[in-house]
Amino acid sequence: MSDLDRYLQAATRDNTRRSYRAAIEHFEVAWGGLLPATGDSVARYLVAHAGVLSINTLKLRLSALAQWHNSQGFADPTKAPVVRKVFKGIRALHPAQEKQAEPLQLQHLEQVVSCLEQEVQVARAEGDRPGLLRARRDMALILLGFWRGFRSDELCRLQVEHVQASAGSGISLYLPRSKSDRDNLGKTYQTPALQRLCPVQAYIDWISEAALVRGPVFRGIDRWGNLGEEGLHANSVIPLLRQALERAGIAAELYTSHSLRRGFATWAHQSGWDLKSLMSYVGWKDMKSAMRYIEASPFLGMARITERPVGP
Question: What residue ranges define each of the domains in the chain, with the CATH number in brackets?
Answer without folding.
Answer: 3-93 (1.10.150.130), 106-293 (1.10.443.10)
